Amino acid sequence: MVDTRAHLEASDPRPPLVVLGIGNLLMGDEGVGVHAVQLLEPLAGPLGADVVDGGTGGFHLLDLFCEYPYMILIDATLDDQNPGEVKVIEPKYATDYPSSLSAHDIGLKDLIESAQALGASPKVYLITVSIAVIQNMVMDLSPKVEAALGPIKTKVLELALKVHHGMAAPAQT
Amino acid sequence: MNGKRIVVDPVTRIEGHLRIEAEVENGKIVDAWSAGTMVRGIETILKGRDPRDAWALVGRVCGVCTSTHSLTSVRAVEDALGIKVPPNAELIRNLMFHTLYLQDHVVHFYHLHALDWVDVVSALKADPNEVSRIQRSISKWSKSSPGYFKDVQDRIKKFVASGQLGIFANGYWGHKAYKLPPEINLLGVAHYLEALEWQKEVVKIHTIFGGKHPHPNLVVGGMPCSINLNEVNAINMERLNLVHKLLKEAQEFVSQVYIPDIMAVAPYYLDWAGIGGGLSNYLAYGDLPTGGYEDVKSFRLPRGAVLDRNLNEVQEVNAKDMDQIKEGIGHSWYEYSGGDDVTLHPFDGETKFNYTGPKPPYEHLDVDKKYSWIKTPRWKGHAMEVGPLSRMLVGYAAKQPDIVGIVNDTLGALKLPATVLFSTLGRTAARALESSLISGWALDDYQSLINNIKNGDERTFNPVSWEPSSWPSTAQGVGLTEAPRGALAHFIKIKDQKIENYQLVVPTTWNGSPRDAKGQRSAFEASLIGTPVADLEQPLEIIRTIHSFDPCLACAVHLYSEKGEHVHQLNTF
Questions:
Q1: Chain A residues closer than 8 Å to B115 by CB
Q2: Helix residue ranges per DSSP H, B47-181
Q3: For residue B43, what is the nearest residue in chain A, using CA coordinates?
Q4: Contact residues on chain B for A78, CB-CB shorter than 8 A
Q5: Does the N terminus or the C terminus of chain B have fewer Cβ atoms within 10 A?
Q6: Residue B166 and residue A117: Cβ atoms within 8 Å?
């Protein structure tokens, strides 16, 4: 149950970065993004970021895409790679997101397109975690995907450093 | 079968995965089948857990109704254990629920349903001066200048020119069933974008009271937030002021944008006031208590059933009566220990999957056999429609003054008889009228909360019965809510402090279920009979009626393969 945001009005000062984990906690490995932000919550201060469990939030997540110039997004992917493999991609357009990325109903792609329609284009680092199967109504991670939590944490720390030290590409192009 | 079978799978712009098969003869639908092709099984994961944890898990089944399932769950446990929540907790729950209704109804209308009526491509031909004139004639909304509409039009032109329609990619643009002039189409598209912007702000009320969003926090016995007007980390005056501001903005958006849009669009689609009616029975559990959830008479949305469209009589509904609500599996991929012809009250409900359908991919489902993952609920044997239309009709029949007032005023303004409510258009209009009522009730509840706090009552939680050692060895309860898309029930049985059985009967179970063992159609199937379909390749008319119910089948997530093909829940096939 993670949401470190203390600033609610769009005009309130806030960190430039949000770490957003998405997925369904009731679908086993598919929920790895949410497991990851649970682990990262105590690090919100050092990361200089808000950390949010986006669950299966759909349109409810749109403000996050509009109010932060940088986002680290963590989600599971079904891409035939070894389970637990962690990759970082830097999608620019909605169509750059892998089609195999889980569609949390009103999907991520709709969300990105909606944000773009409102003129928002945050710099997104997408951390994908390969999973093997969709498990229904399982709450634990499989050992291989659970072992990815460490590497995910390292990637988030690296990316946060990059954002804060001006090494990241500009948010608006 | 003489007609042509058409299949819409998946129905887009809904939560979850729905498949519709329809038989068309001479341009009209003569029969239809609705199939939930995604399995859910939250019931099985809850067994053996602490009942006080159930709200957090059920909140995860859905990305849209999230907080509604959590609210229904805490109500079920409170009912089982006889817990009454403090007045502030009821008001805060109401405020969060008002917020959900407003956000959900607006998102449904503009982002999931409006494009069934509004042709985005036609909007490119609109004259911005004329759009401005129309906008100023229908409301006092400030975004109304010709320059503003020209800007919106230019943005859409850019989308179209880039070949990346983005959010507008999924439509039957140019279909001859679109009837609006280009100017109204542009108005609709402009408000589509404005609604997107507005909805992302209003949900901050959930973050304020629920600590997080999405999936806000609740607690059995009240609300987990503490009220202290001068404390930085509590619900303080600054946060309450933000709630008030967001609720005022919501009321303005509904009254100046949403309602005027409905009134501007409806006259072009009056034929849809005679299409899509379907069933003639309506069920509402009622909601939005003003004097305690135990006191049904205090509900702003009354509880009851209307049969045979008789608006002079309300039938009493009791979810605990073992003979009223019963679920069958005659056409659903489940097994009951008593066989396929048995129907069970949810307290005795069973959740055992047994997929017997064709191996995907398949062309058609065998609709004479089992063809859906949705069970078929009945009230006293009747197929019932649930949702905003049912709530408005039950409220009207129960003579709830606010509901009678707004329904009569609207019908009067459009010079239409009450019979037009029993239709696709009626369903869409009912959702807008309900939003209008709720935007006012929300401000009333806000004021009551402020008054309570100023009178020194800061309680949000009732700790009595929190400790499992204080519970009886067995208990059972029902939690009922009116989710934005209709009547929602959670049934819980507790034994030795753990969940022994937990059953959900969700709104789309009522509306989207397959036929019952007697062959009676449920709401989606019944509503499609008689619907014209101009172009079998582009069945826009089917989508209109199905979307008017605001289907939500998201009780599990579904995935796409690398090639974009739908991946079914493989482990259950």
A1: none
A2: 54-58, 66-81, 87-107, 128-138, 146-162
A3: A137
A4: 559, 561-562, 567
A5: N
A6: yes
E strands along chain A, which residues? 17-22, 49-55, 70-77, 86-89, 123-130
What pLDDT, in 10s, does the model give residues B15-26?
666 788 999 999
Which ipTM score applies to this complex? 0.86
Tokens read off for A138: 């399982």
C-alpha to C-alpha distances, B297 to B119, B187, B314, B316, B398, nearest whole angstrom: 44, 41, 13, 12, 11
Structural domains in chain B, CATH included, are 1-62+305-389+473-567 (1.10.645.10), 84-277+423-463 (1.10.645.10)
Question: Would you say B558 is a known binding-site residue?
Answer: yes
Q: Which positions ≥6 away from B233 have C-beta within 8 Å?
A: none
Task: Give me the domains of chain A, ranges plus CATH numbers.
Answer: 17-164 (3.40.50.1450)
- Cβ of B556 within 8 Å of Cβ of A24? The answer is yes
Asked whether the predicted pLDDT for residue B195 surpasses 50, the reply is yes
pLDDT tier for residue B38 given thresholds of 50, 70 and 90: low
Give how far Cα B157 sits from Cα of A94, B14, B168, B175, B353, Å.
18, 26, 12, 19, 49
- The yes-or-no verdict on residue A143 having pLDDT over 60 is yes
Position with higher pLDDT, B568 vs B338: B338
Inter-chain CB proximity B66 and A60 less than 8 Å: yes
Ramachandran quadrant class, B174 (left: phi over 0; alpha: psi -120 to 50; beta: rest): left
* Cross-chain residue pair A99–B39, CB shorter than 8 Å: no
The mean of the pLDDT values for chain A is 85
pLDDT tens-place string over residues B93-130: 999 999 999 999 999 999 889 999 999 999 999 999 99
Distance CA B436, CA B250 (A): 9
Give chain B positions within 8 Å (CB) of A104.
Answer: 63, 557
In angstroms, the CA B317 to CA B446 distance is 30
> Would you say B322 and B303 are in contact if contact means Cβ atoms under 8 Å apart?
no
Bridge-based pairing of strands B498-505 and B486-495 is: antiparallel
What does the alpha-carbon distance between residue A108 and residue B123 come to, in Å, rounded to a whole number?
27
Q: B424-454 and B87-107 are packed helices; what angle lies between their axes, rounded to 10 degrees? A: 150
Q: How many CB pairs under 8 A join A and B?
A: 156
pLDDT at B28 over 80: yes
Residue linked to tokens 């507790």: B494
